[in-house]
Amino acid sequence: MFPLRAPLLLALRRHVRLPRVVAWLDRARDSLQWTDDRLAHRDELTTLLRAAIGVVWLPPDERRLRAAVDGRVVLVTGASSGIGRATACRLAAAGATVLLVARRRDRLDAVRAEILRAGGAAHVYQADLADASAVELLVRRVLVDHGHVDVVVSNAGKSARRPREARADRQPDLARTMNVNYLGPVRLLLGLLPAMRARGRGQVVNVGTVGVDLPMPYWSAYLAAKAAFESWLRAVSAEARADGVTTTTIRFPLVRTAMSARTRFLRWLPGMAPAEAADAVCRAIVRRPRLMSPWWARLGSFLFTVARGPRDDFGWSSAVAVRRG
């Protein structure tokens, strides 16, 4: 509201000549500027507090982000919505040429149009990571069009939350969960990593989950797939780092996306916005750590380990029993 009023007052100030009115407009403009400064300061303090308690990560320095991605080719999977969309727009604004990958062409076109309107560069590649032949074709098209990829943001994912016994007749669903979260990203990187290693530089950012540290009931298929890809990437990192290719896994807590919105109880938990998750991805690109995980997730994982015993589920069994009532 305030940023819209300040330019209006400035425009009036230029055309009004009565001294008293001019003085009033000047005071009003100064008051609004003071209010804007207070709001910006409050937002900054709120971000710092949320970062301190492990809900979000601080955004990177804009100059360092631009230096890291300006003129580079960045491929983002799952770019049609949520974290992928926010990340693609943020990187394009910093000067990257963004390759948008997802299943839904209409949504990819909308993201590309948004980036182009803002003065960025983006290309659309429709592909389903669960389809091995589609991934192979995607790799060929990308390498023909661009020659290489500097950064891969592996963000596409599929969640599957249901009791174990309810999955007995849902084998196709289980297979798709594994393909989208594990086998698809592996196939994609197997096609793109050779060019990275040959050029002596490259980066992979994996959008993971704190569920790898803190496994929850009903999410076994999803967490198994995410853990499998994280383990694979960690092993590949040991091989590729000598060739200048680095990898980062970000174990995200709850991010409010369309995927998480389907689970009712998650609506009551604190979470970050997709734009804040995009800040974390950009921070990973700038700093290149091997792992980013909230401090409370690492602490919880440690407590989970030391508390193992006859009841090694850290209390989840009781919660499930109460739920079944």
Note the topology.
Elements: H1 2-15, H2 19-52, H3 62-69, E1 73-77, H4 82-93, E2 97-102, H5 105-117, E3 121-126, H6 132-146, E4 151-154, H7 171-199, E5 202-209, H8 220-240, E6 245-252, H9 258-261, H10 274-287, E7 291-292, H11 295-306, H12 316-324
Parallel strand pairs: 1-2, 1-4, 2-3, 4-5, 5-6, 6-7
Describe the structure.
With 325 residues, this protein is α/β, with parallel strands linked by helices. The chain folds into two domains: 2-51; 61-306, NAD(P)-binding Rossmann-like Domain (Rossmann fold), CATH 3.40.50. The chain is built from twelve helices and seven strands. The protein has a seven-stranded parallel beta sheet, with helices on both faces. β1, α4 (82-93) and β2 form a beta-alpha-beta unit. It is globular and about 55 Å long. The relative contact order is 0.11.
Task: Kindly summarize this structure in a few lines.
It comes from Streptoalloteichus hindustanus. The protein has 325 residues and is of the alpha/beta class. 57% of the residues lie in helices and 12% in strands.
Major beta sheet summary? 7 strands, parallel
State the distance separating the first and last CA atoms.
49 Å
Order of strands, widest sheet: 3-2-1-4-5-6-7
Q: Strand percentage, roughly?
A: 5-15%
Q: How would you describe the shape?
A: globular
Order of helices and strands: HHHEHEHEHEHEHEHHEHH
**Structural class of the helix and strand makeup?**
alpha/beta
Report the radius of gyration as a whole number of Å: 23 Å
Query: What's the helix count?
Result: 12
Detail the poorly predicted runs.
1-6, 34-41
Average pLDDT over all residues: 80
Q: Under the CATH scheme, which class of the largest domain?
A: Alpha Beta
The CATH superfamily label of the largest domain reads NAD(P)-binding Rossmann-like Domain
Secondary-structure arrangement, i.e. CATH architecture of the largest domain:
3-Layer(aba) Sandwich
Strand segment tally = 7
* Share of helical residues: 55-70%
Looking at the structure, the CATH topology of the largest domain is: Rossmann fold
How many domains make up the coordinates?
2
